[in-house]
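Design request, tokens follow.
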């Protein structure tokens, strides 16, 4: 198919396959419109580097070029965040949990007010879809608990050794950054190379994420989704996995 004969985007019926890479033009919009949010559809989408993003029907499917990606070895553990984590650990005020409050994390992310947006893309239809994926073991939450209360967190899709960051929230200072740092530490412990961040933001760039051409991203993604998934658990010993973490006792 030549450049001149490409469709603007594909129209999908429930159960339809996604269009092949390069078969549609995505310069001004989504890759595809329609389809459904069933677990098998979402899993097929993520395996091809495609994700849903819409605030009202119909469903819109995206595969942006360039793609924002955090290579875990490039994560920037800023000195202030490292000191904050260490201080909270010494005071026994911080606990990181995985999947202990997924539904709450999902709803809190949906309620975050974001610059330039009047609503949320994590609409009830999307929440129900990701709840189903969570039950299937393909979506997880990383939660920052301070003084025994949920203070922030994030949720992500995991297929094989591929990690797709979806959204984060914070009710207290640095709580979402702590959750991301914990996710990076788990990825490094399991040898997972990157976290897909989808869209470029100044916040993600400040933490080490960089844009990557879509073709390169898809090339790196293909073997990752074929590998077995890790067991997502967190312990305080994993903080030492982070770049820039001092090579000495964790709590000193």
């Amino acid at each position: 198919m030549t450049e001149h004969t490409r469709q603007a985007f594909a129209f999908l019926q429930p159960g339809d396959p996604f269009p092949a890479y390069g078969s549609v033009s995505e310069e001004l919009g989504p890759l595809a419109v329609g389809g459904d949010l069933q677990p098998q559809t979402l899993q097929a989408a993520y395996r091809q580097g495609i994700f849903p993003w819409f605030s009202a029907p119909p469903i819109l499917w995206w595969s942006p070029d360039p793609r924002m990606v955090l290579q875990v070895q490039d994560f920037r553990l800023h000195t202030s965040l490292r000191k904050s984590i260490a201080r909270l650990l010494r005071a026994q005020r911080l606990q990181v949990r995985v999947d202990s409050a997924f539904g709450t994390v999902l709803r809190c992310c949906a309620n975050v007010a974001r610059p330039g947006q009047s609503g949320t893309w994590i609409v009830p239809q999307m929440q129900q879809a990701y709840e189903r994926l969570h039950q299937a073991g393909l979506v997880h939450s990383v939660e920052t608990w301070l003084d025994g209360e949920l203070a922030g967190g994030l949720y992500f899709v995991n297929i094989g050794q591929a990690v797709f960051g979806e959204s984060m929230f914070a009710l207290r200072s640095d709580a979402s950054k702590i959750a991301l740092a914990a996710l990076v530490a788990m990825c490094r412990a399991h040898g997972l190379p990157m976290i897909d961040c989808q869209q470029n933001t100044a916040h993600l760039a400040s933490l080490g994420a960089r844009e990557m051409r879509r073709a390169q991203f898809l090339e790196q993604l293909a073997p990752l989704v074929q590998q077995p998934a890790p067991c997502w658990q967190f312990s305080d010993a994993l903080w030492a996995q982070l770049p820039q973490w001092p090579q000495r006792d964790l709590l000193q």
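Comment from the thread starter after seeing the answer: thanks! The first strand starts at residue 10 and ends at 12.
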